[in-house]
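Input record, target 12 of the design panel.
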């Protein structure tokens, strides 16, 4: 059943992508990352439904998906969009994260990057403080040598679920916005202070690209 629901969700998201008029920033999004592939594409929880569909044709991604029950549906949806799935999860509690497959997920993402495959993941801690970048994406960049690229995507027509992650279900036949931030490289020998500064930089970048995507989509701000 999860696989069927996931495939249906993937088909629906492809339909939304085809029927939505997207504006992008920059006008040629891949100009930001030309010569920097593979990348670590990062977005906020709740913004992840359409991000995998904004890639350029021929640019494959591996997507980190949790091992939860909901994750099984998400994994099937990602596969239906023609992407590779890496199962794992993170969190503030290291023991719980390990039980959820956090280590396996991290190693799977590292392996994908080492083989030249870009990866995508949500940057905030699951069930944590929304819009707060966790350490995981920064550590992945540190160990892989690949840059974090903040990604923001939004559609004007949508359903706001009111969940902890501010998730939105995109609706078709409207305007959309897609924005990429500047690549953020993390030195292999970065000090704890440098890692924290880069985490904050990634957090700021994620907020900026989401705001830009919403502006391009025509979503009014209070």
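The sequence produced for target 12 reads:
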């Amino acid at each position: 059943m999860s696989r069927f629901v996931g495939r249906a969700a993937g088909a629906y998201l492809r339909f939304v992508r085809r029927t939505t008029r997207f504006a992008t920033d920059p006008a040629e999004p891949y100009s930001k990352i030309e010569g920097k592939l593979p990348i670590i594409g990062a977005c906020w929880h709740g913004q992840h439904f359409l991000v995998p569909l904004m890639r350029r044709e021929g640019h494959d991604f591996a997507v980190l998906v949790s091992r939860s029950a909901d994750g099984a549906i998400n994994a099937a949806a990602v596969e239906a969009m023609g992407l590779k799935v890496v199962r794992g999860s993170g969190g503030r509690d290291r023991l719980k994260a390990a039980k959820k497959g956090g280590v396996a997920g991290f190693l799977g993402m590292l392996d994908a990057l080492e083989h030249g495959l870009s990866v995508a993941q949500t940057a905030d801690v699951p069930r944590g403080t929304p819009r707060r970048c966790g350490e995981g994406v920064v550590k992945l960049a540190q160990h892989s040598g690949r840059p974090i690229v903040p990604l923001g995507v939004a559609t004007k027509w949508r359903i706001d679920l009111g969940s902890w992650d501010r998730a939105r279900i995109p609706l078709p036949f409207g305007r959309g916005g897609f924005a990429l931030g500047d690549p953020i490289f993390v030195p292999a020998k970065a000090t704890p202070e440098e890692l924290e500064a880069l985490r904050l930089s990634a957090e700021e970048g994620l907020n900026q690209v989401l705001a830009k995507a919403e502006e391009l989509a025509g979503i009014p701000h209070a």
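The helical segments are 2-19, 69-80, 94-99, 102-114, 136-144, 192-217.
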